[in-house]
Amino acid sequence: MTENQHPMTRSTDPAATDPAATAPVVTATDPWAPLPKGTISKEALSRPSQSFARATISSFLRTPLAVFGVIVVLLMTLLAVFGPMLSPHTYDRQNLAYVNLPPTMKVSEADGRFFYATQNLKVVELSADGRLVGAIDGGVEDPVKKRVNFELGSNTLTLDYKAKPARFLYDGQPVTNTQQMWNSEHVLGTDGLGRDILTRLMFGMRISLTIAVIAMAVNLLIGVAYGGISGYFSGNVDAVMMRIVDIVSTIPLILYVVLIQVLLANSGGFLSIVIALSTVYWVDMARVVRGQVLTVREQEFVHAARTLGTGNAKILGKHIIPHVTGSIVVTATMLIPSAIFIEAFMSFIGLGVAPPMASLGTMANDALATLRSSPYQLFIPAAAICVLMFAFNFIGDGLRDALDPKQRR
Question: What is the residue range of the signal peptide feature (predicted)?
Fold first, then answer.
């Protein structure tokens, strides 16, 4: 455009005035076109990816009963391990003056002193805070009036056991001031031999958990190895090995325990029941592992490993077994409550740990003699068995759901 050209005659072409307008135009249909800045892709991940272990833990923690089971097992394990060390009593120390003392006692107050009559008509004096001061001895029995008189200095305390329930008289006057008092010396009471039930309960839980964990560990090793070999090689090897499993599983566990106790006459019931559980308790684990291995061995990565010349032991140990870890963990968790129940049952019928060693089963057996008069002696170990079994079952259910991707929400 020259200087004399009229302004209205100037070119209106955008390319002549805007250099960016000369850039190639990108259409929306171009698949390789870059997205404008600030545009959010519809295929962007809504949350960061998680590893298998982290996803499993997260799913497990979202199950309230499983978390409750873990807390209960941890608390009972700590109580079983450290409780007997901190207790002022021992599991085998007897005190016949304090036989069958309940956790709460109906005491009679006379002249600022508190008295309690035991089931065998012994009189025990307590302090105001529930501590046992001592047993009152030297009573003179009057069989005609069915009374026992105790001299307390210048005063006389009389136990009238003709009345139902027995009552006290202080200097000939009935004691009417009674109250319920917690036994702070023996929190859960005493048994028929005057032994502290709380200490025996903690020691019994230690015995039961120890036997269950040892049996589970031994059976885990035997069951995984046996079931893995049987499922991997299959064919005739699998047929022979499974027939051995069938034979072992048909023999009653009680017979194993009796035979082992005969062979190990001086070893005590603890070793006998551990050996018995370790001998026959692995068959369930072997069946579970065999079934899982039979499925995994036909997958492509196993065939690829064989093609590359990998040995059978390495394929089984490093490729197949890690893929069935979920089933192994769940089955092992379920084995623990079953072992606890079996140990308690064996001890209950006299084939478990030998007295005076405490076990949940032996405590339940000892409580049968005083079931009507002192039912708490049976309910306490029975409740401990139930709580342990429910807690481990809750953990097993939580692990089963957490390790199964189909169950995750």
Answer: none
Q: What is the pLDDT of residues 265-290, one digit of tens each?
A: 655 677 878 888 888 888 888 999 99
Amino acid identity of residue 143, one-letter, is P
* Length of the chain (residues): 409
Q: What is the DSSP string of 104-135?
A: EEEEEEETTEEEEE-TTS-EEEE-TTS-EEEE
DSSP 73: H
d(CA 202, CA 174): 41
Task: Tell me 170's DSSP state.
Answer: E
Q: What is the mean pLDDT of residues 204-214?
A: 89
Q: How far apart are CA 229 and CA 241, in angstroms?
A: 9
Cα end-to-end span (Å), the chain: 73
Question: Is the Cα dihedral 342, 348, 352, 358 positive or negative?
Answer: positive
286: enclosing H helix or E strand: helix 283-296
Reading the block at residue 261, the tokens are 């106790």
Tell me the three state secondary structure of residue 306. Answer: helix
Domains of the chain and any CATH numbers: 104-182 (2.40.10), 197-407 (1.10.3720.10)
CA separation, residue 147 to residues 29, 136, 141, 173 (Å)? 109, 15, 6, 14
Structure tokens at 96: 């016949």
CA triplet 81, 275, 256: central angle to 5 degrees? Answer: 130
In angstroms, the CA 274 to CA 35 distance is: 69
pTM: 0.79
**Residue 367, number of CB atoms within 10 A of its CB:** 21
Which structure tokens are listed for 18? 């805007």
* H or E element that contains 361: helix 360-366
Match 């342990």 to its residue by tokens: 388
For residues 76, 366, 277, 390, the Cα torsion angle rounded to the nearest 10 degrees is: -40
Strand partners, 170: 157, 173
Tens digit of each residue's pLDDT (9 = 90 or more) over 314-356: 888 888 888 888 888 888 888 888 888 888 888 888 877 877 8
Sign of CA dihedral 100, 105, 107, 113: positive
